């Protein structure tokens, strides 16, 4: 086999009937891998490169999950440029190979599904086209902190709290829960808060089989996996494998403890391991949100719903650390026959986002005696817009007049 290279384009040629024949579409992974390797060696570091090729992949992905590869090509005739894509596993074996073309703006996107038994580790995505090549890596496996579950074991009919943090805020987080047989028992979507944190409650079916259940979560360019165990017996309404008569303990917070860049109107809530109720008619009034100077946030009001306590509040201030405090014995275990089981003191902190100053608008500068045809028009206009020089009150600049000592000092 020969490989012909001309005008920044690579085409594989094969011998057939005494003639060399060109294939318009790359079909074999090994061939694509070879072509991309040649492109990477010959073009990216050479002056022959016809443009710039950029590639983007998610940080992490899970076996059986979809991976979206995005990129763009800038150069002459960017639209409709053929782009060859290959994906290699940690052992450098080609798992996926395909060709696509750039859109009218030079961008391209292609997706593929990882095998269910995909090896954990760092995978490599390569792209070649338009006389250049690019390469990016992504991790197959769980990213830390993306998904957590509580409790670790639960009886059929109980409740599992799923929470975590993804790299981006205000993005959808896909959640897939599989039973011990590997079958998808539940698929849904949560929305991450401004800081990337999310919380989701899963009601374990009363007929749930015992064994290890897995939870996959993906969003904001990252993915994670966690597991919990369903044990035999009835939950008895308590939501876990332990006795329902216990002190209310927090399972997760929003915003998460230590979170930064929290929105000024962010949801503030805490999810408990068991259903809770007010310890007294006025006990919730003792819950506070205070800033780093001890000032209380106004209009804090608590609402209870099953295992979740949500706090409404006035808008936060920028770049400020806030602490939520739930005093001891404010909440009670709402289970039947569990009188006297109250919470211990709970508090967590987070910091709001910094205020971004809008850039100053450029000042439009025009002078009556400096037409666009004047030889120094561009320089005079630019200096005027930057405030370095100004004209006269009558709107003139007098470009041909001598500069005075006072004007020189002012500049």
Tell me about this structure.
With 411 residues, this protein is mostly beta strands. It has four domains: 2-140, Macroglobulin (MG2) domain (Immunoglobulin-like, Sandwich); 144-242, Sandwich (Immunoglobulin-like), CATH 2.60.40; 246-357, Immunoglobulin-like, CATH 2.60.40; 359-411, no CATH class. It contains three helices and 28 strands. Strands 5-11-10-7-8 form a five-stranded mixed β-sheet, with helices on one face. A five-stranded mixed β-sheet has the order 13-19-18-15-16, with no helix packed on it. The model is unreliable at 1-49 and 236-243 (pLDDT under 50).
Strand arrangement across the biggest beta sheet: 5-11-10-7-8
Overall pLDDT confidence: 79
Measure the end-to-end span.
70 Å
**CATH third-tier fold name of the largest domain:** Immunoglobulin-like
In percent, how much strand structure appears in the residues?
Answer: 35-45%
CATH class of the largest domain: Mainly Beta
The CATH homologous superfamily name of the largest domain equals: Macroglobulin (MG2) domain
CATH architecture of the largest domain: Sandwich
Structural class: mainly beta
Number-wise, the strands total 28
- The overall number of domains is 4
Q: Spans with pLDDT under 50 lasting ≥5 residues? A: 1-49, 236-243
Shape: flat
Number of helices: 3
Please outline the major beta sheet.
5 strands, mixed
Radius of gyration: 31 Å
Helix proportion of residues, in percent?
Answer: under 10%
In brief:
This protein has 3 helices and 28 strands.
Key attributes of the depicted protein:
about 400 residues, mainly beta, Immunoglobulin-like, 4 domains, 5-stranded mixed sheet, 3 helices, 28 strands, flat, disordered N terminus
């Amino acid at each position: 086999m020969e490989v012909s290279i001309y005008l920044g384009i690579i085409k594989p040629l094969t011998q057939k009937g005494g003639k060399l024949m060109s294939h318009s579409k790359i079909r074999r992974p090994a061939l694509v891998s070879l072509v991309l390797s040649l492109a990477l060696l010959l073009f990216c570091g050479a002056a022959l490169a016809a443009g710039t090729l950029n590639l983007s992949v998610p940080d992490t992905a899970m076996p059986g999950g979809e991976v979206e590869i995005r990129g763009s090509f800038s150069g002459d005739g960017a639209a409709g440029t053929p782009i060859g894509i290959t994906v290699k596993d940690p052992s450098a074996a080609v798992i996926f190979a395909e060709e696509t073309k750039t859109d009218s703006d030079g961008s391209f996107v292609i997706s593929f599904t990882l095998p269910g038994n995909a090896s954990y580790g760092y995978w490599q995505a390569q792209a070649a086209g338009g006389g250049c090549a690019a390469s990016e890596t992504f991790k197959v496996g769980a990213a830390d902190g993306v998904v957590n579950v509580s409790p670790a074991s639960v009886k059929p009919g109980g409740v599992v709290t799923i929470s975590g943090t993804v790299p981006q805020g205000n993005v959808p987080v896909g959640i897939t829960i599989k039973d011990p047989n590997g079958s998808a028992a539940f698929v849904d979507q949560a929305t991450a808060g401004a800081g990337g944190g999310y919380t989701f409650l899963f009601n374990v079916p009363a007929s749930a089989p015992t064994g290890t259940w897995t939870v996959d979560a993906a969003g904001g360019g990252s993915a994670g996996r966690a597991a919990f165990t369903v044990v035999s017996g009835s939950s008895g309404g308590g939501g876990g494998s332990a006795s329902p008569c216990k002190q209310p303990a927090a399972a997760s917070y929003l915003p998460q403890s230590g979170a930064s860049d929290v929105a000024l109107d962010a949801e503030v809530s805490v999810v408990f391991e068991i259903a809770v109720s007010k310890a007294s008619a006025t006990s919730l009034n003792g819950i506070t949100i205070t800033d780093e100077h001890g000032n209380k946030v106004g209009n804090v009001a608590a609402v209870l719903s099953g295992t979740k306590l949500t706090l409404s509040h006035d808008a936060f201030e920028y770049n400020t650390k806030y602490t939520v405090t739930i005093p001891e014995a404010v909440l009670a275990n709402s289970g039947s026959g569990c009188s006297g089981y109250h919470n211990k003191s709970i508090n967590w902190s987070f910091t709001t986002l910094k205020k971004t100053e809008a850039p100053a608008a450029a000042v439009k500068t025009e002078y009556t005696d400096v037409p666009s045809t004047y030889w120094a028009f561009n320089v005079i206009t630019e200096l005027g817009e930057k405030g370095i020089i100004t004209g006269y009150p009558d709107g003139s600049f007098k470009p041909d007049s001598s500069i005075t000592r006072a004007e020189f000092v002012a500049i």
